[in-house]
Amino acid sequence: MQPNKEHSVDLHSHTRYSDGSLGVVELLAHVDQHGVKTLAITDHDSIGAHLEIDSLRASHSFDSTINVIPGIEISTQFGSREVHIVGLGIDIHDDGLNCFVKNQQAYRRDRLQQYAEKLEKVGISGVGEKINSLTADSLTRTHLSQILVEMGAVQDPQRAFKRLIGRKGRAYVKAHWPSIEKVVDTIKVAGGIAVIAHPGRYQLNRKQLRELVDQFSSAGGEAIELSYPNAEPQMIKWLTELAKSHQLLGSQGADFHNPEWKWLKPGFFPSLPKEIEPVFERLSILTS
Description:
This protein is of the alpha/beta class. It has helices at residues 24-33, 48-58, 95-121, 127-132, 141-150, 157-165, 180-189, 206-218, 233-245, 279-282, 284-287; strands at 5-6, 9-10, 38-41, 67-78, 81-88, 193-196, 223-227, 249-252, 268-269.
């Protein structure tokens, strides 16, 4: 396993606006304790954290010393797989981005209600009401797994996915996400840099990964996340060569969600390969 090291720039994190456990102010205080100086908040299909930061700044209530990069993590469709694309340095007030995000959030909530209907058929009632009570901007299956644990339907989130809501679960609802081209275009029009998130986690073979990077690059994508927790060294090496062949920048981030997840700490991941230009150098104007 590639050794994890502490880094001051972390370009992948989540708050309660999606499936993170911390609020914005809590997250910034937490990453500060871990030595992170520049943080991209990249909630799933949500810019709520950045709108909150804007509001805090307007009222002179924002006192964090962390350089915050406006970001987002968007779900997209690659064949039968869900792939995540991070947008860094986005204009959170872009009309097209805001319209897109609202549609994604509505779809996410509707999909979870479809899960509730399927769960009802396998004998688990009352999930729909629980979903309606959730206040996050962007609902994920992580929220659903937590509901199932709280209801006593399963012992832990892992079993919720394995038995009920994962791809082979009894209540699985197939997702229909927007195309890679649509997502990359939305990010770029909003002034951002599109990044393939944690490419080694999608259970794709190397042929499929090559096709993913080809399609992403052809769509105008500019970077790939090479450094993240538990990234295999051979995969990093292979993806680095693939990134170089497409002239892609390299990104890094812990994908932090919850301080109780001890295997994911802010700023703690392998170092980027030296032969790849870091995407944060292109974001220097935003972090200065």
